[in-house]
Amino acid sequence: MQIDVTFSCDDGHAMRAVLTMPDSTSGRRLPALVMVYELLGLTDEMKRVARDLASEGWIVLIPDILDRGARPLCIARALRAISKGEGQAVDDLEAARRWLAARPEVDPDRMGVIGFCLGGGFALLLAMNGKYKVAAPFYGEAPDPMPRSCPVVASYGARDTTFARFAPKLQKNLATLGVPHDVKVYPDAGHSFFTHTPRGVLGYLGRIGPLHAEHHEESARDARARVVAFFREHLEGEGARRDAAANDDLA
Length: 251
Description:
alpha/beta; Rossmann fold; eight-stranded mixed beta sheet
C-alpha cells in the first residue's frame, strides 16, 4: 500500500510525503526506513524503489524535502545543509523520522535511512546522529570527519568521476570508527545506476557528463542484494529474532 501523507515540521510547515507499507503487517511493529530521494525529487521511480523495499517487510517514508518553494532554491539549501551538517532539510528529515517512529505499525527501535544522490549525502549525515540502526547511501558525498556512525552499506559507480572518489574516504572513516560497513564501487556503473534514469534531454546530458548517470542492471541487482542482507542483519536484528521465536511458540 502506498499513500500520500503530510507531517508537521518543527516550524509548522505541512510537508508532503509518501508512505509505503508492506502488503501485510501481521499485527507486528515493523522496521522502518526514511528514504531520501535523488536530485530529481519525488518521482515515480523513487516511489517504485520504496515499493520494492516495502516488499521486504519494511515501512518506507519518502519526505518531500524540496517542497518549500522554488525548487532551485530548495536544492541549493539542501546542498548547503549537507556541507554544513545542519539546516532546514536536516531538521525536516528529523521531523519525518519522529513522525514515522510514532506510527503504531513502526518499531521505533528499528529505523534505518536510505538515500540516493542528494539523498546519499543526507543518509551519511544522518548516520552520525545516533538515531538510526543502519544507513544505505548510494553515491553520497562522504562527510569528513565522521565522529561516529551507525553501520553503513554504501554503493558507488566507478564511472561517476564526481562521487566515486568519496568511497575510499568513507571506507577509511568507517574502518577507523570500527563500525560494521560494506562499501563497494561498481566498475561498470556510473551515477544513478540503481534507478532508471529519465529519457529525453535530461537523461542524455546525465549520461554524457562526468556523472555517466544511467541504470546498470547487473550492479543494481548486486547492490540491492547487499542492502537487503545488511538490513536483515543490522536493522531487523534482535527484533527479527524475537518475532521468529514468537512464531515458533505459536507453532
